Structure prediction request, 160 residues.
Amino acid sequence: MTFNRSDVGAGAIFVGIGLFFGLMTLYGLDIGTARRMGPGYFPIVLSGLLIVFGIATIVKGIGYEDVERGPLPWRGIAILLSVPVIFGLLIRPLGIAPVLLITTFITSFASRRMSPRAAIGLSLGLTIFCVLVFVIGLGLPLRVFGPLVEPWTRPIFGVR
Prediction:
């Protein structure tokens, strides 16, 4: 029997995570009913969906040849794993706008095809979009500029 190791492995991980969180939900939270949902209702539904998707991925991988893979992209892995840490460390002192600008710029270089000009455009566009949607549109209590950046931005932008 032939199978695609990537699909079967990913499906097994999905099923394992779904089972783990499903069991934790069953033993820790009240599920309730469809009409009176308890705090465990949504997590158990998500766990069930993850298990179903995992089984579907496993079934999809059975009967297909394993795909030849190239070398592991260590640069992309290192960048993508470091960016949430950078975001968490810088969000309070800098605020949402500078941190989004920095982390988007860094993340864009996980791909070797990204040019510096495109990275700058992507960073500016995503930062402006996120500030407009989350801070202005939804009114989330996020500081646009933190205490380290605020003295330089107050005369220019006049925002908190």
In short: Residues 109 and 116 are 8 Å apart (CA to CA).
